[in-house]
Amino acid sequence: MSVLPLVALVGNPNAGKSALFNALTGARQKLGNYPGVTVERKAGRLALADGRPVELVDLPGTYSLNAASPDELVTRDVVMGRQAGERRPDALVIVVDASNLDNHLRFALELIALGLPTIVALNMVDLATRDGLELDAAVLARELGVPVIATVAVRKRGLDHLREELGGLLGSAAPEAKALPPERDFDVVRGEARRIARAAIVRETPSRRLTAAVDRVALHPVFGLLLLLGLLFVMFQAVYAWSEAPIAMIEGLAEAAATATRDALPDGMLRSFLVDGVINGVGSVVVFLPQILILFFFILMLEATGYMVRAAFLMDGIMAKVGLSGRAFIPLLSSFACAIPGIMATRTIADPKDRLTTILIAPLMTCSARLPVYAVIIGAFIPARDVLPGVGLQGFVLFCLYVAGIIGAMLVALILRMTVTKGASGGFLMEMPKYQWPRPQDILLGLWQRAIIFLKRAGTIIFTSTVILWVLLSYPKPPEGSAISQVDYSIAGRIAGGLNVILEPIGFNRDISLALIPAMAAREVAVSALATVYSIDAGDDEALLERSLGDRLKDQWPLPTALAFLAWFIFAPQCISTIAVTRRETNGWKWPLFMLGYLFVLAYVAAGITFWTATALGLS
Amino acid sequence: MRLTELPLRQPAFVDLIDWSVLSPSEGQRLREFGLCEGASVEALHHGGLWGKGPIACKVGRMTIAMRRNHAAAVTVRTGPDAAP
């Protein structure tokens, strides 16, 4: 494959860069990582006006070439041609927010001084007009000395013009690129940026300010906090309420596949492998795709609308009490979806100790992989009735589990900040972007990417661990006429028997011990593992095979055991991927092992207390 | 007066910033946000139940949030001849 010209999108945070990237590349995006750092590399292909293909890369938003955090370093190194794993771009598209020219032009001037072929995309001109700002792109182009194109990424305005201009730029002889930007005083560049911005502004009239009006409620110390809690509550209720129909559909499909396989194949190893291992195992996890997508939908919406930063603002007071900054709230909220993007998002935190503490508590946020476990147990043991009109008990219990994770995380942060990550607290400095209504396509694209990642996991990690577990559970076969069951006689059963010595005091049975081992690969495997165990246990008993996993759990587990299992998963020592990403982020094994250790202890203690309390209360 | 004492939604200008209160990277970030001597500034919201949370303020055309200890390092002027 010949090497395509590389064009980099670069600009301030909140300039609408990602929306422009999506609008230019469509769904043909490739997500990856820069080597050695966990900064996400987003690249896609763009066709120029004459049909020539170009590789477009979306660089992390930053305020200047004076980088403070790991993701800003990537942007600086790429545009200077110093980033490992990335060639120097052949051209830059600088994205500036039309309503914030003073600030964004200063960074644009820094970038233009690098001498690479450059176009400025004057983005979100519609919002600027809404705010009563009228700009002259021609004046701007003259003053900056590079082409300026007015764009509205979310409405695809100006994109053809941008493609055309880019084609001309890449075709012409490249001007000399400088390895380093010329040394210039910060205040001088700012003065120049301000002068150019003033020259380009044709008219400026005060107008209605939607964002200010919304913020009066959203940032209010009382109503704002209530709104945030309300939003989170709706989010967790929706995870249950909206997912019923699609889950029933997936379950129906899995059941049909299992029945068809059972009918088509003779009884034997292959049939057991396909039905017990593949369809029941993997199927029991895939069933949670709707719930995971609903959760991601809310998180993507909160981010894209600009509300997430408001949440950080509201939470800063509370976060400061445990020695963190409000900024940590964003990675922590993302960790509800998955701790891995959450831990990666901590790279925007400049203070190293703030960042380390946030990484260490991120796995305490209830990630979506725990959802399958919670959902199965809650579905089996918590009655589906309303505690209040419109508020289901099951959703309420789920909400409580999330709250327990949050309280746990805060306490752990407090203790860590007084011991291992002792030191002065970092500050809280953040830009608050304007509210905007996200383009449905951008949200759908985000959901699509998450769905693919989840299904790939189901197809690889979860499939592999389920298959290994099936093998370990199926062999060796007990001798004919033996009173010992297949599961107890198998290798896995024997391992679990050993492990049970440790786990029995906190109320865990053999099946849980069995499920916890492969759950290290990915938490949701606990569910598929239980499904496989019971599937093999049932043997050829048709009546048993037709009962759902939840029903079977209800028959076999006392309530205190189920509650202890839920409590274990609040702290659940995390999956291997989280350990790996923590190792990469902290450059060593010390912190991931520390994390693993403290989570194990907490999970054990929490499950134990839950079990003993529930037993003492006589719950059953 | 200090930015922390500025009444909400009253336009003002930055008179002086005590950069020594800020770490070099915090100072750099504030400058990148456009907060410097002479910039127009307007306090918008005080966060936290007891007024101890961060402050959201408008600097030029941008809204930023910062903690009270940082905002206290910013001295502002109001009134008809406050503009630089």
Defining key terms:
heterodimer, A: 620 residues, alpha/beta, Rossmann fold, seven-stranded mixed β-sheet, 28 helices, 12 strands, 9% strand, B: 84 residues, SH3 type barrels, five-stranded antiparallel β-sheet, 32% strand, globular, Transcriptional_repressor_C (chain B), iron (chain B), Fe-transptr_FeoA-like (chain B), Ferrous iron transport protein A (chain B), transition metal ion binding (chain B)
Structure description:
Chain B: One of its GO terms (molecular function) is transition metal ion binding. Chain B: InterPro entries: Fe-transptr_FeoA-like, FeoA_core_dom, Transcriptional_repressor_C. Chain B: Keywords: Iron. Chain B: This is Ferrous iron transport protein A. The complex is a heterodimer of chains A (620) and B (84). Chain A has a seven-stranded mixed beta sheet with strand order 2-3-4-1-5-6-8, with helices on both faces. The N and C termini of chain A lie far apart (65 Å). With 620 residues, chain A is of the alpha/beta class. Chain A has helices at 17-25, 70-79, 101-112, 125-130, 137-144, 159-171, 186-200, 210-218, 223-241, 244-264, 269-286, 289-305, 307-321, 329-334, 339-345, 352-361, 371-381, 393-418, 440-474, 486-489, 491-503, 510-516, 525-538, 542-545, 549-556, 559-571, 576-586, 590-616; strands spanning 6-11, 29-33, 40-47, 53-58, 91-97, 118-123, 133-135, 148-151, 201-204, 386-388, 391-392, 429-432. Chain A folds into three domains: 6-204, P-loop containing nucleotide triphosphate hydrolases (Rossmann fold), CATH 3.40.50; 224-238 and 292-418, no CATH class; 449-557, no CATH class. Chain A contains 28 helices and twelve strands. Chain B is built from two helices and five strands, in the order E-H-E-E-E-H-E. Chain B has helices spanning 24-32, 68-71, and strands at 12-17, 40-46, 55-59, 62-66, 74-77. Chain B has a five-stranded antiparallel beta sheet. In chain B, a hairpin with a 2-residue loop joins strand 3 (55-59) and strand 4 (62-66). The mean pLDDT of chain B is 87. Chain A binds chain B through residues 63-64, 66, 68, 99-103, 106-107, 186-187, 190, 211-212, 215-216, 219-222, 225, 309, 312-314, 316-317, 320, 326, 350, 427-432, and chain B through 22-23, 25-26, 28-34, 36, 44-49, 51-54, 56, 60-67, 69-70. Strand 12 (429-432) of chain A pairs antiparallel with strand 4 of chain B, so a sheet runs across the interface.
